[in-house]
Amino acid sequence: MIVIENVAVATVDAAGTEHADGHVVISDDGRIVAVGAGHAGRYHGPLRHIDGTGCLVTPGLVNTHHHLYQWATRGLALDDTLFGWLTTLYPIWGRLDAEVVGAAAGAGLGWLALSGCTTSMDHHYVFPRDGGDVLEAEIEAARGIGLRFHPTRGSMDLGQKDGGLPPDNIVEDTDAALAATEAAIDRWHDPSPDAMLQIAVAPCSPFSVTSRLMSDAAVLARRKGVRLHTHLAETGDEEDFCRERFGCTPVEYAERLGWLGEDVWLAHGVHLDDAAIARLGETGTGVAHCPSSNARLGAGMARVRELLDHSVSVGLGVDGAASQEASHLGSELRQALFTARLRGGPAAMTAREALAIGTIGGARCLGRQDDIGSLERGKLADLVMWRLDELGHDGIDDKVAALVFGPPATVELALVGGRAVVERGALVNADAEALTRAARRAHRKLMKGL
Ligand code: ZN
Q1: Using the 8-state DSSP alphabet, how is residue 171 labeled?
Q2: Centroid of ligand 1 to alpha carbon of 126 (angstroms)
Q3: Residue 52 maps to which CATH number?
Q4: pTM of the predicted model, to two decimals?
Q5: Distance from residue 300's CA to the centre of ligand 1 (Å)
Q6: What is the pLDDT of residue 327?
Q7: Is residue 8, in this structure, part of any structural domain at all?
């Protein structure tokens, strides 16, 4: 049993309950048994007592969009649009293998943990023929860090010869991609409430995937009872592509293919008209908001205020490290707040709303809202204790404001199902220097000969 006391608590429950001085109690099976004001009651048996003086406890952050392999290709095509950036990087990604992906995923997930993330998805869609089992490699990496992991089996089957953007040698055969996706679900997906590993189905984007793969993937996911994810409405170029090729907007295209619904969450959703936002709300489709990536690629600013007003489940994503070198999920709270306010003025988002999309909003995108995303009795003990009494934050009395408006805060403690993954700003289960060395080797291996 773990008892955390003398700590500010932001539960992010439906009522927005907060305690300026409170406690959280965690059972040995990794669930929250009490959260409230003042001191905890008396508990018997082996007990770890944690003094949270100077800290704020929140639900662990949930990362709803990422491409971990991109950690090995950071800092390239620095001034390009999405399509230019992709065209530069596709040939390099065509050289990926399991060793590179494992090292990149270890570094990316370790860094995510240090930035306050306790659950991350990954969207992997590059499967070179001779690359080995890259999905297994990233799953092993996640186990090594200790994060709850939702990797998606992505795919691309629309190469340049068929009018797509990626080179023909990195796309898969449509049926082979579907078969490999089903095999990944059968091998890895855990539907249980405590699951540390769940798989979703994730064809890459309208300009790299055929309509048949999109619609067959939706049928497959629903037959297997897993979720659906893809990139949608990220850039003006994508919108032009959809209008020219399909004669409709990206969201209309998605709906035509069976890709709107409560089991779907879409990455970006930047270029959405009023009708599209209404349709996402009506169908229960979620959006992974990636404000830093959108800024880095100059893609635009998502209409998050309007999405929230239409009851769309919005989560936060860092997006792949090649289009968002910082990849720091804690900082994404602030970036989301600023992006909303640049679009809609200071009333467009509050610090509490930013924290909510980073936690319970993300949990909804991944279909895990019953088990993670808020601090409530019975939920899994996925939480972060942020240190807020040092130079960068001390004196900001509103602790949630200190976390969101202030600089990135040190993670004093991060628990996943009650198990520590970060303590005093350091990884518990992995060595950050070893992760750095492995990622450096992976980068050099990938870039060799180019
Ligand atoms: Zn992406």
Answers
A1: P
A2: 12
A3: 2.30.40.10
A4: 0.98
A5: 14
A6: 97
A7: yes
